[in-house]
Amino acid sequence: xxxxxxxxxxxxxxxxxxxxxxxxxxxxxxxxxxxxxxxxxxxxxxxxxxxxxxxxxxxxxxxxxxxxxxxxxxxxxxxxxxxxxxxxxxxxxxxxxxxxxxxxxxxxxxxxxxxxxxxxxxxxxxxxxxxxxxxxxxxxxxxxxxxxxxxxxxxxxxxxxxxxxxxxxxxxxxxxxxxxxxxxxxxxxxxxxxxxxxxxxxxxxxxxxxxxxxxxxxxxxxxxxxxxxxxxxxxxxxxxxxxxxxxxxxxxxxxxxxxxxxxxxxxxxxxxxxxxxxxxxxxxxxxxxxxxxxxxxxxxxxxxxxxxxxxxxxxxxxxxxxxxxxxxxx
Length: 330
Description:
Blueprint: H1 2-28, H2 32-39, H3 41-44, H4 54-59, H5 61-68, H6 76-105, H7 123-152, E1 159-160, H8 168-192, H9 196-201, H10 222-233, H11 235-238, E2 241-242, H12 243-262, H13 276-285, H14 296-300, E3 309-310, E4 321-322, H15 324-329
Parallel strand pairs: 1-2
Antiparallel strand pairs: 3-4
């Protein structure tokens, strides 16, 4: 009985932890409102969020019709306010609790949970990741607020909700196709930013966090942040995809993106998903382990970290250099 109670509590704790990370991950990119709009699109269209009061219609008729209504952005100010304010509350609130629980309350037990238990970010870098991450979250929340407003006002998307619209074969095939689409672009765009010029001028901003935390997830150059968000955001506008495929996949990718940067040593649920230390090692060794949601592209291009090679910030290419002892023996 005691064992059963313990298992139940353990599962509840894990479930609460996962939900918390999901919320933090969507807040970090400012996309919580967009996910809700995608989930309840039909119910939200035609609600008070999309209607302008009669007083506003009379006093701002020209402005409304000439701009906001033309672009299907009625009540944009409300959507932006909700998107930004709640994103900040969740990002700072949940992120703060997350940091407190692991990096302050359990700092002395780091060997039990941390990927790099003997190393922590400097106070300067902690402040930097928090401020830069908050700035990018504001950027993401603003973009998402515009898109959410457009959709709620009847804007066109290729997202569909009935399997019969495309059939079971198409819908099921789109699950691995969308997953690999994300992993493929994430790998190649990420590796592109590790070419010398782009790394020094753009991506190095993100790599100042050698021991990343949850706030490091979106602490990067704003141009890079927009690049990675863009290939996720455009999908429901160009490719027919079921909501039950798009939303869970995005949330899954965001969840692991957050955990990969959390510094918490966590094993993967699925055999193709690297554990969190895989990306933590990317921050530690720099130009290696470029993938996020599978080993596939690192394996194809021989950019997996190996113990017989040396890596460093000034060793570009993704393959490191052979150790001297290995060279001599060969």
